[in-house]
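Data card: per-record layout.
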Amino acid sequence: MSSQATEKSLEERIELFMRRNFPQIQMHGGSAGIEAIDKDSGEVWISLTGACSGCGISPMTIQALKSRMVTEFDEISEVHASAGMGFDYDEPFEPDVSDAPF
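The structure for this 102-residue chain is written out next.
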């Protein structure tokens, strides 16, 4: 089997995984897509767009995608994600509460 066919198969499986596990993304007007896959390193780049861009819960959605994807796919060791508007989530999400009024 060619490496191109193998990558396509993995891409199709990831897309199915996202639709199956995160239907709320589309239900709320957003979309999730694969930007790139590096099968040699086990890295995947995904992006959330549409209503997900700038959404307050997109960091939690991304963290869930990342942890579930690494668990479900043996071929994936690391997931990089962005949610549009310049938001890249390659580090665990930790809200800044230093200015919180409570």
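Known properties of this structure: Strands lie at 30-38, 43-50, 78-82. The radius of gyration is 15 Å.

See the next section for split statistics.
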